[in-house]
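Researcher: Re-running this chain for the archive, since the previous output was lost when a drive failed. Same request as before.
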Amino acid sequence: MHAIESVQTAEQSVIGAIILDEKSLSAVIDIIKPEDFYFAELKSCYEAILKLSRNGKPIDFVTVLTRVTADGVHDKAVMKKLLLRCTEITPSIRNIEQYAKIVANSHKARKLQGTFQSYMLDGVSAENVDEVAEKAMSELFEIVKARTSKKLQNIGDVGLQLFDDYSKNEEDTIRTDTGFTKLDGFLKGMSAGNLIILAARPKVGKTSFALSIAENAAMTGKTVAFYSLEMESREIYERLLSKRAPIAMNTLIDRKFKDKKRSPKIRTEEVNKIAETIDGTYKLPIKINDNPACTVNDIRLETRMLNNLGLIVVDYLQLMRSSRRYDTRNLEIGSICRDLKCLASELGVPVLCLSQLNRVSDENSRPQGKT
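Model: Regenerated structure tokens:
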């Protein structure tokens, strides 16, 4: 009972603060939506406020009362009493953001309870466990994620923020270098929030190149999350080992064959190099996930918990599946790209996604520009 009263007080304080000072709406419009309100009459008041704002009308006691009772659904005397109550109990206009956060979080709590109850009632079977788990993760993330809508801001304020960054003389934390000088010259580093597509034909070294970028980023101290939908984590590490040891990749691969003619024995000095390399890479902040059924939601849930995240690598796009169903594969790929871009923006890190181009009959593997 106490919790419901607290929610009611917070909802009334939001409405009251806006009526007392209409400029307060700008502080909460991105925090709460009408559906966040628990009490129907207060929800109607907030909807009336938003309609007045969209129409460029003033927001005060009289205009809100007139708007909310215009359709005849609510009794004018009742709503008048409610709005007076809202203005009377509002402790402080300056704290409206805190009141709004209580309203938003209470709505999340109710949705979480409803989601858990629905899955408990529906039940889970051996036939649908994976599907239900994926759906549950998607729904839970949609409930708890922060709203990321951006507002209009004065261009002068943007300039001041930029100048502040320039004047700090600190390392640029919003970019991650690839470690390849010429490429960084073109890209100016991989900017936070960007989705970068690395596309090439099969078997030309996309994974090895992406792994080198990941290694270079990790060498600066930034955490790198590497999602491999094609290769096992051991295969990924073998490529890193071959590069750093250095030992020919064929030597590492061929030792797996039982045919002694094809399996050159790794020499003692090479074993020592492997040991030194493993010791040197042990503390590299690179995290590898080799789940071939990984979705963007899975990546989101894992990476948002990582500290000092500087780069996410996905290998590769065409092997990913969306948690939603689409009529064509092209629509699904488009949706995955949009989700990856949103993920980059939400986490404030670059996402490097590998993509496989179709094979062609000619032997020239270099990209050909149009003339």
